[in-house]
Amino acid sequence: MMTKRMRVTVLVCGGLTLGSLPIAAQWTTVPDPNVPRDSSGKLRGDAPTPRTADGKPDFSGLWMHANSGPPRAGRGRQGGAPARVNPGGGPGGAPAGAPPGGGRGGIPVDLTTPPFPYDPNGPPVATFFEAGGNMEGGLPYTQWAKDIKTKRFNELQARDNPDANCLPMGFLQFHQQPQPRRIMNVASPKMLLIEYEANYGLRHIYMDGRKLPPPGEPTPFWYGYSVGHWDGDTLVVETNNLRGAEDSKFDGWLDVNGSPYSEQAKFTEKIRRPTYDHLQIDTTVDDPKAYTKPWTVRIDQRLIVDQELIEFICNENQTFRQHVK
What we know:
Order of helices and strands: EEEEEHHEEEEEEEEH
Largest sheet: 9 strands, mixed, barrel
Radius of gyration: 19 Å
Number of strands: 13
Number of helices: 3
Number of domains: 1
Structural class: mainly beta
Helix content: under 10%
Strand order of the largest sheet: 5-6-7-8-9-10-11-12-13
Shape: globular
Strand content: 25-35%
């Protein structure tokens, strides 16, 4: 059996919708015999969390971003610039926190992933275009960060966003990309490996007990240096040594609209799997150069089964810079 998934990578800059052309791709469906299913063969998403041999939650699988934002329409409570386009393809058509389910003129970006219920007791839910889109007053920018955000968004209309230029993205963009990502357990060295379909991102989270290195050791990476440890059933991942907005105009992008982070940034992700088909990531950004205080946002992802990642070569027929200078 073959399954068809439609992939359209879209970034909206000014009045233009830019990115790769629509791709219709087919992949062989291989049913996973270990997945809990109901009598009709569908995934039982509320089944218990699977665990590895050492009793810890097993995060492996193919995951899609799923909305869990507050049940309302509009632009959210972001104090800065609004999103460039309503994720639902029209004014007020999608709940806050949703990734772009449609682009300019309703162009589909990816398959709709069923949302999770909004948790009013949790941290604000990040939005695809604005990390602080559901945060009262918006992100607590320093003047340095505010000036960068103004130039990126108001003056350049996000044309230097790394996604549009086939470059690695910041974690919040990667976590919310409508293209899926696969998490894999690696035994030696012990780590989690995350493979992102978008821009062929590849991230290593070391789980062998090593400590987070001091800033500047090693040389800053696009994805930084990540180490993880368990706190009960929560995986705590700390990341530093990232390339920041000081390095180039394509570096240090938290979201589509250009909220920056610096080389001083430290990300702490608390990852949980409350049910079989639910991955929850609370991300705290501590960056005294870019933000007046640490802040935390939530991102949810939903498991998809019997599918694989599709090869995506961003630079193939890339014409973005021919249209936007």
